[in-house]
Amino acid sequence: MASPWIGSDIDLPTLHQYRLADRLEFRLACLHNKKVSFDNRSEIEENNQTREDGIRRRRRSGTWPRTRSLNAPSPVQTFGPCGRIMKNSSMVILDHFKPFASIKDKLMTFRDSKDDLTDKIDFIICLGGDGTLLYASQLFQQSVPPVMAFHLGSLGFLTPFRFDNFQEQVNNVLEGNAALTLRSRLRCIVLKKPDQNTSSDKPKGPQVPTNLLVLNEVVVDRGPSPYLSNIDLFLDGKYITSVQGDGLIVSTPTGSTAYAVAAGASMIHPSVPAIMVTPICPHSLSFRPIVVPAGVELKITVSPESRNTAWVSFDGRNRQELCHGDSLRVTTSIYPVPSICAQDQISDWFDSLATCLHWNVRKRQRNLDDDSQINSLTHSTSDDDILDSLEREVLDKEEQIANVV
Description:
Tumour Suppressor Smad4; flat
């Protein structure tokens, strides 16, 4: 999906006007089943090449991409104020949402997994949820610029900033007053078994990436097969165990609060250098999640005795099949994701645990206010006391009857 580079010479009212024109054109096209042409469309097309060349030549210091969740509000409402701040800061804006048909030809775009953004981006602002941050991470398969994530999604565990006072927060970060959390990523390499029967004349389908970086986890599961998976696990070349169940999760400390915690794993602070290995529904009462050092290399293969193949996915993307003889190598990458903190490393993490996962939420036990409550809880009533109280009640009733007579 292409994304426009909006230069600072395009003001927000003009952008909003183009957006409204696009919506009107879409409605008319749906009603009349034809595309409506505007009077100024020809003029726009004539100036497309000239404007595009001008934008391509302009390169200002400080470029920042913005990614947006599909469920987020209209980009004009949320991106506009951010764009005004970046425009005043003389920064080029990279908006990552579906480009408007009337202006997309006037903007520079990039293509996912085809254009290298390593040396073009200096600062990332994410508007959305955790999935938006994961998508921004996979755009950079090497070094990642600092990421400032605003919470506009549903969960928002990885997005500590609120959009209410974004002007103050963005300006504060641009002035250099911000702390960073280096979130480690996993380098995942899929090694396919050489197929001697493959013919060079056989048409090849789309190539699936086999070398990826993940921020949360890599998941190996049984896929559509009804049989349990049988996966062999190696650590630095040494056989560790076989996983018989639904699959295996290899996660970073950041991903320990995602799929791994749902599978029964512990939660690890993102600053801890570690790799978590968590089985998915293992057919064993003693197979517990384990934590290994960050510097080791894990190798995952399909056991020769397995009745079916396995499937692997990377942060929920690029799902592909692992056949017998294939292997998956996983180790900690040297390219972490520098995430900007709203407060600090510790406070942000525990605030997310409390607000998003409701960690350790329980009704508070009341304290003992006075001695009367203590006596009522600690006093033990004997059988003799009960009999005495009943006898007194009987005597009182007899006395009342005698008085009446």
